[in-house]
Amino acid sequence: MENGAAQPVIVAIDGPSGTGKSSTSKAVAAQLGLSYLDTGAQYRAITWWMVSNGVDTGDADAIAAAAGKPDIVSGTDPDKPTITVDGVDVSGPIRTQEVTARVSAVSAVPEVRARITELQRTIAADAARGIVVEGRDIGTTVLPDADLKIFLTASPEARAARRSGELKGADVHTTRAALLKRDAADSSRKASPLAKAGDAVEVDTSDLTLPQVIERVVGLVAEKRAGK
Q1: Going from the N-terminus, what domains does the chain have, and what CATH number goes with each?
Q2: Residue 32 burial by Cβ neighbours in a 10 Å radius (0-12, 13-18, 19+)
Q3: What is the pLDDT tens value at each position of the chain, 228 positions in all?
């Protein structure tokens, strides 16, 4: 652990929903003594604020005008990551179906992306121990100079099975359709679309257990630190 903490490293982990990004990123950060940032939670937080404050999430201009208002603070301890908006813990409320249904539209607004990207870069720069940052545009837009970029993928079937398992009682077919719709929205938006960085290492998690994915990523970090 001391060895991991002594060598700051910035790891960017991107990929679509249901590939195991959050579970992998938290575990890798904890194992290596690094900070951790869930950037998706930040976009969910600003979406929750818009919904809670009556901003029309179908109106890009209204979203843009309000983008600078909420105070979003992310705790970066991988064992207990936190997120607050205007001092209120929103870790639960941001996972509701209403927020999930609206987050792609809010995230697509350039002013929102600029605001959150600036926040993410500040957190990464202040992470003295190094950090694992997970999201959809970290290696391409937010931290293009990250020491290691990883792009997690998985088949739509594997992703739907995982996500419906997380969302108790969710129908796999409905979940698969929702994931593919989210992929299309995230990949086609003009501002920082979901994409694999040219120098990212792709890891297909379809047939891997979570411990296997974690082991693979920890191994990639070790190789990067060793200069391989």
Answers
A1: 2-225 (3.40.50.300)
A2: buried
A3: 444 445 789 999 999 888 889 999 999 999 999 999 999 999 999 999 999 999 999 999 999 999 999 999 999 999 999 999 999 999 999 999 899 899 989 999 999 999 999 999 999 999 999 999 999 999 999 999 999 999 999 888 888 887 766 655 567 777 778 777 877 777 777 777 778 899 999 999 999 999 999 999 999 999 998 886
